[in-house]
Every structure is written in C-alpha cells, then in structure tokens.
Amino acid sequence: MLSNPFLGSIIFGLIIFIGLFISSGIKIAAQWEKAVVFRLGKYSSIKGPGIFFIIPMIDELRMVDTRILTMDIPKQQVITKDNVPVSINGVLYFLVSNPEAAVIRVQNYSYAISQYAQAALRDVMGGMTFDEILAEREQIGKSIEQNVEKESREWGLQVKGIKIQDIDVPEDLKKMMSRQASAEREKRATITKAEGDKMAALNLADAARTMHISPGAMQLRTLQTIDGLGPTASNTVVLAVPIEIMELMKKFSENGKN
C-alpha cells in the first residue's frame, strides 16, 4: 500500500494539473474581438466578446479584430485610356463582418483584399482618360469600392470606403500642364480685357450720341467737372474748356456789368 505522504503528493499533483488544465482553457476576447473556435480541426463556434472556455489540446482558436481597419494602397503605375502614364495611391477602409468566412475561406484576408484593391485600381484607372481622373476622384473611389466589395463579401469582409490620395505624373508632363494652364489663364485675361474694352467703347459711343443730340449736355458736363475739382493749393489743373462755355461765361459777365 502507498504511504499517506505519497498519496497526498499524487493528489496535490492532480489538483495542480487540473487547475492548470482548466485555467489554460479560460480565454478572454476584447470588445472588438471575435474568437473562431475549431474543435479537432473542424469549425465549432464563434466566441466573444468577454470570457469563454475552450477545451485545451482539443480546441484551437483564431482571434479576429472586428474594428474598421485601415490599409494603404501603394502607388500603382497606370497608363490611362489616352496613354498618359500616372502613379496613383489610396487608402482602403474595411472590417470583418463574418469572422468564420474570413478565417476559413481565405488564408490571409488582409493581404488578399490589399492585392484585389490594387488590381481594381489599375483596372478602373486604365479605362479612364487623364482629365476624367483629375475631375472625378471621388467617383473613382466609389467604382473601385464596388469592384472590391463584390469579391471581398465572400471572404467575410465589408468595404467601408476607398479614397484616392495622390495622382502623380512625370516631370515633363507636369511642365507641359503648367504651360497649358498659364496659356489658358492668359487667354481668359485677354478675353476679359477685350470684353471690357468693348463695353467702354459702347459707353463712349452712347455718350457721343447724347452730346451730339443735346449740345447743352456737353456744357453741363464741363461745368460739373470744374465744380468737382474744388480748390486745392497743392495741385495745378489744366482743363481744356470748349469755346461755347467761354462765350456763355462772357455773356454772364456782360449781363452782370449792365
């Protein structure tokens, strides 16, 4: 028979083993996590958030972050529809909506959606002209988002948005675009000046017709100009006064003497 001290050691060892066994099966998932549990290699259940228990050495789990994840889309070299070489990058926002599918149906869902987003970006950009890319940046993001969403839905992922960040072109093309923009600004300035000159000419023509129809209007305008100058000690004003005004002033002077 085993001695009591030896039996006590065995019982104590069993208690320690059972305690470690149970404690190793206690798991905790954060509020933003889901645990995909596999039992003997087969999908069993989804656990979390909070505390839960698995059978050690029988159950295996994969923790999945269900928050919105942000991923950079690296620069892609694209030839546009009108043969302009451009480099474009962006940002992808997505989350895991089905943890089971994200773990079982694709080996690495983050890498998979990143590669698919890059391919979708090249496909969409390649079907557009350079001017369309510059003018429809937001629409481009939506088109890429729709393409990625179709495939990633089967992986248990939900695309929340894709934003285009930078659109770069070769230096020689930048210089050409700068010259083109400068020429366009000069063209608009020339048109604006021409329209202003045309309006001024029309106003002068109207004034000339008015003066021709009513000679007194010219005399009145001259008197208004003289009155508006006012006395200034520091300025000398040279004014050409029409003969009609001089004669009119002479008559007023003679009438005053009489």
If you had to describe this structure to a student in words, what would you say it looks like?
This protein has 258 residues and is an alpha+beta fold. Among the domains are: 12-65, no CATH class; 69-169, Tetrahydropterin Synthase, Chain A (2-Layer Sandwich). It contains eight helices and eight strands; from the N terminus they run H-E-E-E-E-E-E-E-H-H-H-H-E-H-H-H. The strands form three sheets. A three-stranded antiparallel sheet has the order 3-2-5. Helix 3 packs across helix 5 and helix 6 (171-213) packs across helix 7 (215-229).
Write the layout of secondary structure elements.
Blueprint: H1 4-25, E1 26-29, E2 33-39, E3 42-47, E4 50-53, E5 59-65, E6 69-79, E7 85-96, H2 99-104, H3 109-126, H4 130-135, H5 137-152, E8 157-168, H6 171-213, H7 215-229, H8 243-257
Antiparallel strand pairs: 1-4, 2-3, 2-5, 6-7, 7-8
Unreliable runs, pLDDT <50, ≥5 residues? Answer: none
Could you say which overall geometry the principal axes of the C-alpha atoms support? Answer: elongated
Assign the CATH topology of the domain at 69-169. Tetrahydropterin Synthase, Chain A
Quote the beta fraction. 15-25%
Q: Could you state the order of secondary-structure elements as H and E?
A: HEEEEEEEHHHHEHHH
Number of strands: 8
What is the CATH first-level class name of the domain at 69-169? Alpha Beta
Number of H- or I-type helical stretches: 8
Q: Gyration radius, to the nearest Å?
A: 43 Å
Judged by helices, strands and strand pairing, the structural class is alpha+beta
Average pLDDT confidence is 80
The order of strands across the largest sheet is 3-2-5
How much helix, percentage-wise, in residues? Answer: 40-55%
What's the CATH H-level homologous superfamily of the domain at 69-169?
Answer: Band 7 domain
End-to-end distance, in Å?
A: 163 Å
Most strands sheet: 3 strands, antiparallel
CATH architecture of the domain at 69-169: 2-Layer Sandwich
